[in-house]
Amino acid sequence: MENLPAFKRHRRLRSSNAMRAMVRENHLRPDDFIYPIFVSEGNNVKREVVSMPGVYQFSIDLLEDEINEVVQLGIKSVILFGVISEKDEVGSGAYSDKGIIQQATRRIKEIAPDLLIVADTCLCEYTSHGHCGVIHDHDVDNDASLKLLAKTAVSQAKAGADIIAPSNMMDGFVAVIRQALDEAGFQHIPIMSYAVKYASAFYGPFRDAADSTPQFGDRKTYQMDPANRREALREAESDIQEGADFLIVKPTMSYLDIVRDVHELSNIPVVGYNVSGEYAMVKAAAQNGWIDEKKMVIETLLSMKRAGVELIITYFAKDVCKWLKDETVY
Ligand code: PBG
User: 313, 79 in Cβ contact below 8 A?
Assistant: First the structure.
């Protein structure tokens, strides 16, 4: 062809690293991440989670190095999960002032007073049946569970938690926890609600890590149906009305449409939880040499930013912060 037709030359803006950096619309920074830590009972425990290579359960006496590394990498917050062996029907380990999370919170505040501690407020790690609330007639009793969740949130705040993150999916949890925190003098403590949480197979490895697999049934009467989109907006709307300060969408990778919907619904910060199954899939493929882990993780986390998250809870947080030191990471 002698004369080409008129067309646009998009490649002009992709011609070099510097040019691409100039027009890049989304970035990853250490401030974007909340790093999950599993805290176990006992002494001298540093146990790798089999289905989550690179993720460990730590006993409180071994937290110091881990916390120092997180701080040194520039990460501003961690979310804590407890691993205990003595469980009961009502999950009393969740709201005891001597509970594992309460103790770990006090210890971490000694090591790193400025690191923000997000407390996951749920009962499933502490109940003998593994459900997120108390059981009556073979189902989780919503209103009875709310009372215990409110107690859990207050004891976590008392121990020094900076943010309360209820993840149990009972109706009304934001309203009840907000009221309980306010009455206990914690008006200043924000609630990061797991507003939109699907009943997902992607939580499998976490349940190994936190020993929280339900002993009967499943979580489908309280967590959401993966087929639904409009239901996510109903969940998010009620949490906004009840006073949530952040909205979590979980999982994230397969739910980017929902992240975008929630982002458009309100101006409250949206948090993506890049869950255990998403982590395990990437790790397993990388260990087999089938994918480039670094590139795949960066691409995945950027897709979450593009969809509209302000923050990402991810087991990759430490790795990514190390990779970000190299400018050509994108
Ligand atoms: C507690 C809770 C779960 C996760 C976070 N908080 C498990 C569940 O709902 O079964 C999952 C996190 C992950 O998979 O990384 N309810």
Answer: yes
Helices of type H across the chain: 17-22, 63-72, 100-111, 142-159, 173-183, 204-210, 230-242, 256-265, 276-287, 293-307, 317-323
pLDDT value at position 209?
Answer: 87
Mutate to test the pocket of ligand 1, among 212, 219, 279 (most ligand atoms within 8 A of CB): 212
The alpha carbon of residue 23 and the mean position of all alpha carbons in its chain are separated, in whole angstroms, by 30
Distance 95 CA to ligand 1 centre (A): 18
CATH numbers and ranges of domains, the chain: 27-323 (3.20.20.70)
Candidate of 131, 203, 211 to mutate for ligand 1, largest count of ligand atoms within 8 Å of Cβ: 203
Average pLDDT value over all residues in the chain: 96
Distance 164 CA to ligand 1 centre (A): 15
Tokens coding 99: 């509970």
Q: Which residues pair with 192 in a beta bridge?
A: 246
Are 148 and 122 a contacting pair, CB within 8 Å? no
Mapping DSSP to helix (H, G, I), strand (E, B) and coil, where does residue 62 land?
A: helix
Span from the CA of 326 to the centroid of ligand 1 (angstroms): 32
pTM: 0.97
pLDDT band of 145, cuts 50, 70, 90: very high
Whether the predicted pLDDT of 59 surpasses 80: yes
pLDDT confidence of residue 126: 94
